[in-house]
């Protein structure tokens, strides 16, 4: 499945308050398509909502490193 469709699914999961599933879907997009930068922001946002602030910051830093490459 293409990354934008998977991120749409992650967004739908988040909307249904299925945060763990949304986080997992977004993380799988990062694993499979590390150049798809919107996934980093999405995962960070979900992690923030889950109270995982340090992990949210980590994924944003990972995205920044990807931009610098």
Automatic annotation (TrEMBL):
InterPro entries: TPR-like_helical_dom_sf. This is Uncharacterized protein.
């Amino acid at each position: 499945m293409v990354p934008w469709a998977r991120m749409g699914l992650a967004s739908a999961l988040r909307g249904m308050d299925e945060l763990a599933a949304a986080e997992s879907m977004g993380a799988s997009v990062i694993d499979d398509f590390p150049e798809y930068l919107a996934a980093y922001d999405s995962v960070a946002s979900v992690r923030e909502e889950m109270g995982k602030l340090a992990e949210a910051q980590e994924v944003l830093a990972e995205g920044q490193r990807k931009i610098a490459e």
